[in-house]
UniProtKB/TrEMBL annotation, chains A, B:
GO biological processes: gamma-aminobutyric acid biosynthetic process
Lineage: Eukaryota, Metazoa, Chordata, Craniata, Vertebrata
Protein name: Glutamate decarboxylase 1
Family from the record: Belongs to the group II decarboxylase family.
Record keywords: Decarboxylase, Lyase, Pyridoxal phosphate
Length: 479, 479
């Protein structure tokens, strides 16, 4: 059953080199290992230069070519994964848009009417990764990717191979049930009974927030679905000044109007001030608006602050408002699929019975999380020996990293609050051009531009934080 | 550089069997080839039973385990791809929800707090595919997946490995430019100048349609964004009775109200009647509504009918309405990413400058299409020898299949219009239980339940159509 002659070779080699022939566009970097040494991939090398997409499955006799093609792709992907994690490699190889568009080293983004052979397709794949950003690199501190999780990656590869859709049990029996299982598990963790919760995974946090406003509006004014906003009173909704801008966006999209989103002042740590909330609700009522919704944030975008949920809940209950918690769950964020929270008092999600989503078809987002959940565990305590990569441990590692950064910053004399906020952008620009680390910055209220260090990448260690600080000092001193 | 000792073995074997040990949950089917023969995968077998997620990258020394794990996964995926395409395999192995939930043959969907070892994770992956639907099977006639495209699959694997997001050039330089290139190419094809078009890829046709209504509303009444629907007149929009329900859904979500969507009558072929459209627009005006939007469908959901675009455009222009064409482009549909059309007279997409999408972060949908476009070509004429798998040829093959079905149906005496519409559901239920083919059905207006055969799978040949017809007759005769 195993025929060595048919093997495309060294599937274990994770350097960038492999058996690809030099393409017509290639100027030399492809087909070589990092140190420039050329080799074939350990046996019979396969010539992709006369094979085209049409020769792959479902073409008759396409199985052999398909195997070889996918195997070669996997070699390229594995090389990328391996390189991404290495501190000696750059986080990015920065180029300006016009440079990339000009076709750097033969990497041609343009589409011609001629089909490319599979050799060129594989070179295109390698180049796409080469000129991209290695979001899994230990020194990628930028938002939003949180490192490459191999189990999650496996989940994505399988999902795309299964190539189906979430709209019916008929075509997605397993995935539909997995979504139910995972949602029920999440409900249990936050203390809901099985029958209290419902939900779907949707494409990102902004969509989740839009759903929450939509549900609240329908719950309180069901006529809006058929008759529209003209049939219901003027609405007002409330969120903290530090919350994500998606709440305003949702109000604009849903026809409520962005100016009817009232931003509540925060304390100096970025937490919503409950007294302010109460005052603004009363103010809105006096103006003739109908307050109907409060968004509380558990982890604000910039400071990571947690609004005082209990106090907000009391105020919401007092005024009869729907309270939504934008829950920036670590494991969900990582998947670009945030769970939609509703307060348990409003569990009866009756909106659009039969089809829960705004979309009709829906991408299968669930398998990745389900598989990661199977492979990791919730808590370190349940099985101490294998706990170091559980979700909880992963989050704790990130928190330890941020404590370490704080500790180091307090002790260093070469960092101080910069004025006018022009330093951070300049340092970042130089950092991106050199490509050894990546971090984001922004201003907030009266604060000037400051670096915002995101810890979510499990690959990041203390040495990377030290490197980052030294790098900022070095680049800053050259200004 | 190629060390045979380190090779996990037969990467070329695409049967279901491989080197996985039997898991504690496994009752025997895993680890065997289809004919039950057991083997190791051609060399050193790797023991995944004592390896956990924590042992994979970014763990120190995690590279070796990562390579082996991903390679084993790829073996499983390749076996699935190979099997999916084989007519001798079932399209699906049907089970009711309660059966799957009970943990069929040890396939346990539930999440425990214990981490599973990678052997079990791989078994879970195999089982997930085993109990799913093979949407790439030549006899999968059901909506909506259109066969598994190997280049598209490669694109998805790379996209998930790159693990980034579309929100900035900073973190997605290559993908952001690819989106621009592909959109510009699409604009050129439909006859727009470069500077006339703009757009984004979004998660599915329903979202695209929602965007179109959103843009039209903002274009005509920009105040709606900040002030909401209460600041603008009562709106009405128009779409054919055979169009996709997402237009109604969009009106509900956007606060316009689903009852303000006016459904226009169609002719017997499912095309919108322009005279009806004109009459209903006038009627809405008399009622005090403000008509602002017409959706014309190029390929309706059930009949695949094309609305008379030119006549609708004339009427829209006369009344000053925004005309949107729901373009069911084959290549886009296939990707769950439909391009958003706007009429060229309204090209100035000024909505939400700076961030074009409702979402903030956005999944990278573009690479798959870009890569497929590179690998196929637009037209058969440009390069006759390699044209048989171009997009155009692929669509033509589907059209030929549907002509063939029509031809056969006309000649067969054992098919006729059924009454009461109870036959199709019964035949489909039996078909799914047996699992050798899959087709959808539905009623429409005065028509009873009828089979709806979707031709979009390049794997489907005439023999599959013959098989389908015979199967329907066979199952029907047993009722």
């Amino acid at each position: 059953m195993f025929d060595l002659e048919e093997s495309p070779g060294n599937i274990m080699d994770m350097t960038e080199g492999n058996s690809l022939h030099k393409s017509k566009h290639d100027t030399g970097s492809v087909g070589n290992t990092d140190d420039g040494q050329k080799y074939d991939s350990g046996g019979v090398s396969y010539d992709f230069s006369c094979i085209y997409s049409k020769d792959l499955l479902p073409a008759e006799d396409g199985e052999e070519a398909t195997k070889h093609f996918l195997q070669e792709l996997v070699n390229i992907l594995m090389a990328h994964v391996s390189k991404s994690i290495k501190r000696s490699s750059k986080v990015l190889d920065f180029h300006h848009p016009h440079q990339l568009k000009e076709g750097l080293e033969g990497f041609n983004l343009e589409l011609s009417d001629q089909p490319e052979n599979l050799e060129q397709i594989l070179v295109d794949c390698r180049d796409t990764l080469k000129y991209g950003v290695k979001t899994g690199h230990p020194r990628f501190f930028n938002q939003l990717s949180t490192g490459l999780d191999i189990i999650g990656l496996a989940g994505e590869w399988l999902t795309s191979t299964a190539n189906t859709n979430m709209f019916t049990y008929e075509i997605s029996p397993v995935f539909v049930l997995m979504e139910e299982v995972v949602l029920r598990k999440m409900h249990t963790i936050i203390g809901w009974k099985e029958e209290d919760g419902d939900g779907i995974f949707c494409p990102g946090g902004s969509m989740s927030n839009l759903y929450s406003v939509l549900l609240a509006r329908f719950h309180l004014f069901p006529a809006v679905k058929t008759h529209g906003m003209s049939a219901i009173p003027h609405l007002a909704l409330f969120t903290s000044a530090h919350s994500h801008y998606s709440i305003k966006k949702a109000a604009a999209v849903l026809g409520i109007g962005s100016e009817n989103v009232v931003l509540i002042r925060c304390d100096e740590r970025g937490k919503m001030l409950p007294s302010e909330l109460n005052a603004r609700i009363n103010e809105a009522k006096i103006k003739g608006l109908v307050p109907f919704y409060v968004n509380a944030t558990a982890g604000t975008t910039v400071y990571g602050a947690f609004d005082p949920l209990n106090e907000i809940a009391d105020i919401s209950e007092h005024h009869g408002l729907w309270m939504h918690v934008d829950g920036l769950l670590q494991e969900c964020n990582q998947l670009c699929a945030e769970y939609l929270f509703q307060p348990d008092k409003h569990y009866d999600v009756s909106y659009d019975t039969g089809d829960k989503s705004i979309q009709c078809g829906r991408h299968v987002d669930i398998f990745k999380l389900w598989l990661m959940w199977k492979a990791k565990k919730k808590s370190q305590l349940a099985h101490p020996l294998q706990g170091s990569e559980g979700f909880e441990a992963q989050v704790n590692h990130c928190l330890e990293n941020s404590e370490y950064l704080y500790y180091k910053l307090k002790r260093r004399t070469d960092f101080q609050l910069v004025f006018k906020g022009k330093v951070a952008p300049k340092i970042k620009a130089k950092m991106m051009e050199e490509g050894f680390a990546m971090i984001s910055y922004q201003p907030l209220e009266d604060k000037v531009n400051f670096f915002r260090c995101v810890f979510s990448n499990p690959a990041t260690q203390r040495e990377d934080i030290d490197f980052l600080l030294d790098e900022i000092v070095r680049l800053g001193s050259e200004l």
